[in-house]
Write a structure and sequence with these properties.
Distance between the termini: 62 Å
CATH class of the largest domain: Alpha Beta
CATH topology of the largest domain: Alpha-D-Glucose-1,6-Bisphosphate, Chain A, domain 3
Family: Belongs to the phosphohexose mutase family.
InterPro entries: A-D-PHexomutase_a/b/a-I, A-D-PHexomutase_a/b/a-I/II/III, A-D-PHexomutase_a/b/a-II, A-D-PHexomutase_a/b/a-III, A-D-PHexomutase_C, A-D-PHexomutase_C_sf, Alpha-D-phosphohexomutase_SF
Structural class: alpha/beta
CATH superfamily of the largest domain: Alpha-D-Glucose-1,6-Bisphosphate, subunit A, domain 3
Keywords: Isomerase, Magnesium, Metal-binding, Phosphoprotein
Radius of gyration: 23 Å
Cofactor: Mg(2+)
Strand content: 15-25%
Protein name: Phosphomannomutase/phosphoglucomutase
Helix content: 25-40%
Shape: globular
């Protein structure tokens, strides 16, 4: 069959399409609604995805679609479904969903998926995360570049004789909750008082389903779904957005606080004192629990996580595997090593039992279970996993990131006992066990610095020493 000329949707262009590099990036589609992304463009993305999937398999198929609470999401989902069904594929629309619920649907139904969200970005943004069956990510190297090229050029109309697909609405939140609760048993845990800050994001929808009925006294914060984010940005990686939760945990006398980002695929933890628990410590405790179920397995950690993480993995009989930053690398290496779990410093946590996809909710269940099985406080429990002092990510604007990295390498690399590697940016290890990593941003003229040392004083001294060179 031959393609007919480009469709009306492909030619009636409301936002620029000639160069979509600022919208369709390495891992997802994300931009400002009305300026970079609109219904007409999204219709073409759906059509391009359907053509890609049809080219890979002559049979018709299904794409599962979910969306977050942003005001623009329903219209974009409807347009995307039009593009997919026009090219002969069916759509299962699960409606409101967290990103990890969409991954669950893709895995459980064994079909490709599309999640409409801009994660932690402000209200004016929206976007799409795409995956193949089994929640396998679609990135630039695995189909997203092909989709981008097709949309830039104008997606051809469906082949002559194509039978349009159908759209079915299906609610899967109860199935999602049951699946997660089947992976982590909290039934015997002691009662816990838990403050949860949903940030007006999708955790306000999923937390009652997943945590309801367990021995947990949930104190909800900002559970109302509101894509304008009236209370604070749904980005717990920014310390300013944790302040409300920290105060509430102390005021409520709670055992633990949980903060989710807008699409609820990342979870941040606060202890009973209102102090943040590092994602590295969460990675370490979840790794220990997963290794108890799967002894001897590999566990993935990116190179920015604390050195405590590979130490603890080894101590619990696992094999630590170090990777670059980024979910595509984590998932690829997980598949290669059959790793049971993977964690990143950014609070993304990946599980073999969850189609190697990331789930902040599943990580939260593990931390709640560990605390519920202990007799003490969360700060006491996590002390064994918080072994070193870390700077967090410190960004510096530079004219030439690569020249600065070369200067740092020359300055430190010649010293006795110093090790360097360039797996992702430049990592420098010093004889006293302290280390730092410098990585250039992929999208901005920034260098990202992470430093770790035995104590805060040593960390601060090394951080300032490196920054003096970077910012000179």
């Amino acid at each position: 069959m031959t393609d007919t000329p480009a469709s009306t949707a492909a030619t009636a262009r409301e936002v620029p399409r000639d160069d979509l590099s600022g919208l369709i990036k390495a891992y997802d589609v994300r931009g400002i609604v009305g300026e970079q992304i609109d219904a007409a463009l999204v219709r073409e993305v759906g059509a391009a995805l359907a053509r890609l999937l049809r080219a890979e398999s002559a049979e018709t198929g299904v794409v599962v679609v979910g969306h977050d609470m942003r005001p623009s999401s329903p219209e974009l989902v409807a347009a995307f479904a039009e593009g997919v069904t026009a090219h002969g594929l069916d759509v299962v629309n699960i409606g409101l969903a967290s990103t990890d619920m969409l991954y669950f649907a893709s895995g459980a139904l064994d079909v490709p998926g599309a999640m409409f969200t801009a994660s932690h970005n402000p209200a004016k943004y929206n976007g799409i995360k795409l995956c193949r069956a089994g929640a396998s990510p679609i990135g630039a190297d695995t189909g997203l570049a092909t989709i981008r090229e097709a949309v830039e050029q104008g997606v051809p109309a469906p082949a002559a004789g194509t039978t349009p697909g159908t759209v079915e609405e299906r609610n899967m939140v109860a199935d999602y909750a049951a699946y997660l609760r089947g992976l982590v048993d909290l039934s015997a845990a002691r009662p816990l008082r838990v403050v949860v800050d949903a940030g007006n994001g999708m955790a306000g929808y999923t937390v009652p389903e997943v945590l309801g009925g367990l021995p947990l006294d949930i104190v909800p914060m900002y559970f109302e779904l509101d894509g304008t984010f009236p209370n604070h940005e749904a980005n717990p990686l920014d310390p300013a957005n944790l302040v409300d939760l920290q105060k509430a945990v102390v005021a409520e006398g709670a055992d633990i606080g949980l903060a989710f980002d807008g699409d609820a695929d990342r979870c941040f933890v606060v202890d009973e004192r209102g102090e943040p628990v590092s994602p590295s410590a969460v990675t370490a405790i979840v790794a220990a629990r997963e290794l108890a179920k799967s002894p001897g397995s590999a566990v993935i950690h990116n190179l920015i996580t604390s050195h405590a993480v590979p130490e603890i993995i080894t101590e619990h009989g696992g094999t630590p595997v170090r990777t670059r930053v980024g979910h595509s690398y984590i998932k690829q290496v997980m598949a290669e090593t059959d790793a049971v779990f993977g964690g990143e410093h950014s609070a993304h946590y990946y599980f073999r039992d969850f189609w190697r996809a990331d789930s902040g909710m599943l990580a939260a269940l593990h931390v709640l279970a560990a605390l519920g099985e202990s007799d003490g406080t969360l700060s006491a429990l996590m002390a064994a996993y918080e072994r070193y002092a870390a700077s967090g990510e410190v960004n510096s604007t530079v004219a030439d990131a690569h020249a600065k990295i070369a200067e740092i390498k020359e300055r430190y690399g010649s010293r006795d006992g110093v090790t360097t590697d360039e797996l992702d940016g430049l990592t420098v290890g010093l004889p006293d066990g302290s280390w730092f990593n410098l990585r250039p941003s992929n999208t901005e003229p920034l260098l990202r610095l992470n430093v770790e040392a035995a104590d805060h004083e040593a960390m601060a001294a090394l951080r300032d020493e490196v920054l003096a060179v970077v910012r000179a």
